[in-house]
Write a sequence for this structure.
């Protein structure tokens, strides 16, 4: 991981390198539930715009979020600055046949009001053979409608299947549930991804805010002069090869979350947190939200 000067020209933002060689912001912005409530819309758009200004140029979304409403809201937030952002979008497994992937992508592009998605993920493994989805992704790449593809919620066996397929090694990320209270991927999936240099994109990094109420985290945060959110996000960012995508629709909380980068966790602090939130002691089925 290194630091990159953002478009804003003032702030330095940490980045993570994708297998393609492209650097993306280590802290991005999630958009689950964004666009669902009319009353929140203005603040949500302002929050995404502020995030981009501060250098968090990776935005994660999915056709599933609000049935396309999150994509439509993003279109409004990025109007006039498409080239500054890196859009991660996801196709539903039920749409992920070869031709279904292509038509789902076209619909998303329309809602996003753009001509390309930067990184297009399979949201989770469904009934369609992976080979068909990858063939759809490859065709979309050739047509310039997506730049890269990846996956989400794939377990170790599924990653191994993908790795054997033609084109499967072009995968750029596996987006997974990963936070201090959800460390089960560290047993075998994370080491495999690391060995193959595939960065994890950590979703629900503060466990949808539930983690912030944890007394152990609150105590650590107080002792280290951070907020609970900054401590939880900081632990993930400190790993160096994890892209972290917290969601907030509020500018104050966005500033708090990105304040994480101003006070990085030391190795000793990370270890301290890992004692409070222990690692897995054996294999378990992949957790999802
Ligand atoms: N691939 C998948 O299957 C999958 C699954 C889940 C999520 N995701 C992606 O990952 C993103 C993040 O995950 P998530 O939305 O599930 O959970 P999250 O980022 O862990 O938490 C979001 C929740 O925390 C609140 N929050 C954010 N910052 C806060 C702070 N500093 N203090 C207090 N509350 C705070 C937000 O409320 P406010 O908005 O009111 O601040 C929101 O309710 C999603 O938005 C989505 O893009 C992917």
């Amino acid at each position: 991981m290194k630091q990159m000067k953002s478009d804003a020209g003032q702030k330095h933002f940490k980045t993570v390198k994708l297998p393609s060689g492209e650097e993306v912001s280590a802290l991005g912005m999630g958009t689950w539930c964004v666009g669902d409530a009319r009353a929140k819309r203005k603040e949500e758009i302002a929050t995404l715009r502020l995030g981009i200004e501060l250098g968090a140029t990776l935005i994660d979304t999915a056709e599933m979020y609000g049935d396309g409403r999150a994509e439509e809201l993003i279109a409004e937030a990025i109007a006039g600055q498409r080239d500054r952002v890196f859009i991660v979008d996801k196709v539903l497994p039920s749409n992920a046949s070869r031709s279904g992937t292509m038509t789902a992508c076209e619909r998303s592009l329309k809602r996003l009001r753009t001509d390309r998605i930067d990184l297009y993920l399979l949201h989770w493994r469904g009934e369609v053979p992976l080979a068909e989805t990858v063939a759809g992704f490859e065709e979309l790449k050739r047509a310039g409608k997506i730049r890269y593809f990846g996956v989400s919620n794939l377990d170790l066996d599924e990653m191994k299947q993908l790795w054997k397929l033609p084109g499967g090694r072009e995968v750029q990320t596996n987006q997974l549930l990963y936070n201090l209270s959800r460390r089960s991927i560290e047993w075998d999936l994370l080491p495999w991804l690391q060995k193959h240099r595939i960065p994890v994109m950590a979703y629900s990094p503060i466990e949808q805010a539930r983690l912030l109420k944890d007394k152990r985290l609150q105590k650590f945060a107080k002792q280290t002069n951070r907020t609970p959110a900054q401590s939880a996000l900081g632990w993930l960012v400190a790993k160096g090869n994890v892209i972290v995508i917290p969601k907030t629709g509020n500018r104050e909380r966005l500033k708090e979350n990105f304040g994480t980068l101003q006070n990085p966790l030391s190795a000793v602090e990370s270890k301290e947190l890992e004692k409070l939130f222990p690692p897995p002691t054996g294999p378990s089925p992949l957790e999802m939200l």
About this structure: Confidence is low (pLDDT under 50) at residues 4-10. Residues 177 and 287 are 7 Å apart (CA to CA). The beta strands are 2-5, 12-17, 23-25, 58-60, 86-91, 117-122, 146-152, 174-177, 200-203, 242-244. The domain at 2-276 is CATH 3.20.20.100 (TIM Barrel).
